[in-house]
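User: My collaborator sent over this chain with a note saying "see what the structure looks like." That's all I know about it. Can you take a look?
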Amino acid sequence: MTLTTLRATAALGLCTALLAAGCAAAPSTPAPAQATPTGAFASGIDRGAKVTQLSASFVTTPEPVAMTDGKVHLTYELVLTNVAPAPVRVDGVELHDAATSALVPGTTGRVDLTPLQVGAEAEGAEGVSQPGPGNTSVTIAPTTTYVAWVDVVFPQRNAVPATIEHVVSGAVLAPGAPPAPIRMRLGRTNPATAGPIVVGAPVPAGTWYMSEGCCADDTHHRRGMEPVNGVLEVPNRYAIDFYKLDDQQRTWVGDPSRLDSYLSYRQPILSATAGTVVAAQDGLANSAEVPNPTNLATVGETVGNHVIVQVSDGVHVLYAHMDPGSVAVRVGDRVTRGQQLGLIGSSGISTTPHLHFQILTTPTYFPADSRPYAFDSFTLLGHVPVRLWDDNLGLQPTGALPFRPANPASARTNELPLDRDVVRFGP
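Assistant: Without extra context I'll predict from the sequence alone. Here is the result:
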């Protein structure tokens, strides 16, 4: 067979497989290899292999983490690209246990499909109290990529399967033909088995608003996907912005155009762990126009004045947006848990004073992946039911946040607060 004939035959077979009605799904597990006697004939093609209309890849290895809703969350991104010559309609994405090929029991969650648009976060409508069920009915054009933003919750950690595969159902929409139903098994991932790193509070005792956190909400952190050195990453997946509140749930008192009106401003930043300082930057100015700056920092100054502490291989703690002149440590310093690293400011890409806190896989913010973590102890006081972007906290009529108290407030251990929780650290 000539190379030209081989190419034509392969292309014809591929198109036929992609567009035929009722395309067969890829099996949940590869066909087991059979021992072949020496000298016998054997096929070099896996008999269970099927052509799929979508390719699948992952941005991270999912890691389960217990959160304040009493559930274990698995949060990650499934990247789907239509490699078929016709549009593919996706009607649903299911998580299955690869060992049983069955829908993962006892789970609920959200899968939201959006076009891949790096550098542009998915910003939900202002005032939306809770995220919807997610958009799982989309039509993906040929050569087009969508991101499935997955947040699925389990009743407990041991309910997380060793291997998860995704079942995508829908149809191929070939021109001039009725929709051809498809059901594909694709995208296998092995969630991490070790628990998240447990840390202390990075701020002093008091009441703090956990803004832009994980997991289902469409926040700047959760949806901030970037291509760094040619690799897609979500560097802020589990990041939290800390805002200090008073007993009236106010983030600022007085004139919101003044930095010192914000209760977070110049609050101490404390090391949440012991470790070694691997990055420390100072000298960048605070945002000059508060609370609505027109000239934000450059990408290279994203996190402003900051400190990164290495705890172990692949575990680096970032403390960002420090006040200029306040960074109290230098590269190479050994720090202890609770040691002061600096003061909260508004340097870098920041509109009002706050602490940006997260765990990185590398000693750099770019490139990096964002890992879950848990605070060893705090009290859950309540929740802010209305979406308020960090960008416009200072644009509200008053500094008071809408607040829904927990009933009752409850002590929590080894959990990660959900987006917009209000918590108290210390007694």
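A starting point for your reply to your collaborator: The two ends are 78 Å apart (CA to CA).
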